[in-house]
Specification:
By secondary structure, the chain is α/β, with parallel strands linked by helices. It contains 16 helices and 17 strands. β9 and β10 form a beta hairpin. Keywords: Signal, Transport.
Length: 444
């Protein structure tokens, strides 16, 4: 397989299996059909490529084997986490769910299937090695990759071209300066929103040789933290970078902002037109660029995506049926169909190679752009999985909220003071310092 990922991780894949995964090829439940429930995060209740691929299973292998998979919840990952914790307490967990590995800290891991018991070593080795790393908890493989993504820079090129001819989006400092220029040009609109500021700090501090997480907490005292904080804080205080809640794709639809940094899968929600306040629509061209970095730093980006978990049943036949479905949905043909509909990356080595050797076969033009851009990052970027540590989910949430809150207040303060005649540079310098100290205080 072509070299794609260089993930820094403190764990290695364990290839010594305590049991040989069972074969699911000859299983059949037609005499007593089995229904499996699943909660997932891919799409919406009415429009979801995941739902489509599940229906394909039900009409083919499921019908042949006597297995029906029912989607009983679709939500975002945070909501699913909360629902799973509640469901565990009431003994109403679904048979399968997609989630980030952090969920293992929230529910009893003894309730989860160890995929090593149902997949042979040969089957496990078909997955991209680095994608498996997040799924291991000790020697148990509790989460299997189903679709992975990374992050890119998305631009509404139609509106941007009216503002500037500058197309250098490789350096964060250049981008943040452009954001402030756009704020002036557009009479007070932000140009950019980063969907996950935690990811920005984690990757860019790493790219500079520092550590964002130390001793199970955020290290906000390093010189690398300040280096990464200052330029984005300046743009947020000025107004060029949005610190609003919600996803950038919502504001993309109305041209409230014209660029975003987020998951490749976000392409599903980025329309080819915008709707203005007067109700008029305008077709737009979307441009996609590699994840930016800082000059002189090692280009670094997140490798992200939920995995699939199985909930252990006292009925071993149900466990085997769960494994059969997961094997089917991650097989090369089905996985390629699923991920290319959503802008994700396939999880099997053979499927991964096939996609990037044949990008021209991707049917959706915008999705093709996504894969072409990822290919540009193929060899030069370090791809990092999110660190998993005690209370990591809560710490990430607190960081996002604290960062946005501090800078939102600073933007209001800056605007009010400058409008009242205060010196712009002195006010900005003061608010940069006080914002950094305020953020540090909230992170303690």
């Amino acid at each position: 397989m072509k070299k794609f990922l260089n993930i820094v991780a403190s764990i290695a894949i364990l290839t010594a299996f305590t049991t040989i995964g069972c074969s699911t090829n000859n299983l059949s439940y037609k005499d007593k059909p089995i229904t499996l429930s699943i909660w997932h995060v891919y799409g919406s209740q009415t429009k979801s490529p995941m739902n489509d691929i599940i229906e394909e299973f039900n009409q083919s292998v499921g019908k042949e084997k006597g297995i029906v998979v029912e989607v009983t919840s679709i939500s975002d990952s945070t909501s699913i986490d909360e629902a799973l914790v509640s469901a565990e307490k009431s003994d109403t967990l679904p048979d399968m769910f997609t989630a980030y590995p952090r969920i293992v800290d929230e529910i009893d891991k003894n309730l989860l299937l160890n995929w090593n018991d149902y997949f042979s070593e040969k089957e496990i080795n078909e997955y991209v090695d680095e994608f498996l790393l997040e799924g291991y908890f000790g020697d148990e493989l509790l989460m299997l990759p189903i679709a992975k993504s990374t992050e890119l820079f998305f631009l509404n090129k139609t509106i941007y071209d009216r503002f500037s001819a500058d197309t250098d989006f490789s350096d964060f400092n250049t981008i943040f300066d452009l954001c402030n220029d756009y704020y002036d040009y557009s009479n007070g609109k932000a140009m950019l929103q980063i969907n996950d500021y935690y990811h920005y700090f984690y990757t860019q501090i790493h790219s500079l040789g520092g550590n964002f997480i130390e001793n199970n907490k955020i290290n906000a005292d390093s010189k690398e933290f300040e280096t990464v904080f200052m330029p984005i804080a300046k743009a947020a205080i000025y107004g060029g970078v949005s610190t609003d809640d919600g996803y950038a794709s919502d504001k993309w639809k109305t041209a409230e902002l014209i660029s975003s940094i987020g998951s490749t899968a976000g392409i599903m929600y980025m329309r080819d037109y915008v709707t203005y306040e007067n109700g008029e629509d305008e077709d737009i061209k979307t441009a996609i660029y590699p994840y930016p970095t800082f000059e002189g730093a090692q280009p670094t980006v997140i490798q992200r995506g939920t995995g699939i978990f199985g909930v252990r049943s006292d009925d071993e036949k149900k466990n085997e049926a769960i494994a059969l479905f997961v094997k089917w949905i991650t097989s090369k043909e089905q996985n390629l169909e699923l991920v290319t509909e959503m802008g994700y990356l396939p999880v099997k080595k053979a499927a991964f190679d096939e996609l990037f050797d044949n990008i021209d076969t991707v049917k959706i033009p915008k999705h093709k752009l996504v894969y072409e851009t990822v290919l540009q990052m193929y060899d030069d970027y370090t791809f990092l999985a999110l660190p998993l540590y005690e209370d990591s989910a809560d710490i990430q949430y607190n960081f996002e909220e604290s960062f946005k809150s501090v800078l939102k207040d600073a933007h209001t303060n800056y605007t009010n003071r400058v409008n009242s005649g205060a010196d712009k540079e002195k006010t900005m310098d003061e608010l940069l310092d006080t914002s950094l100290e305020s953020l540090k205080s909230l992170l303690q």
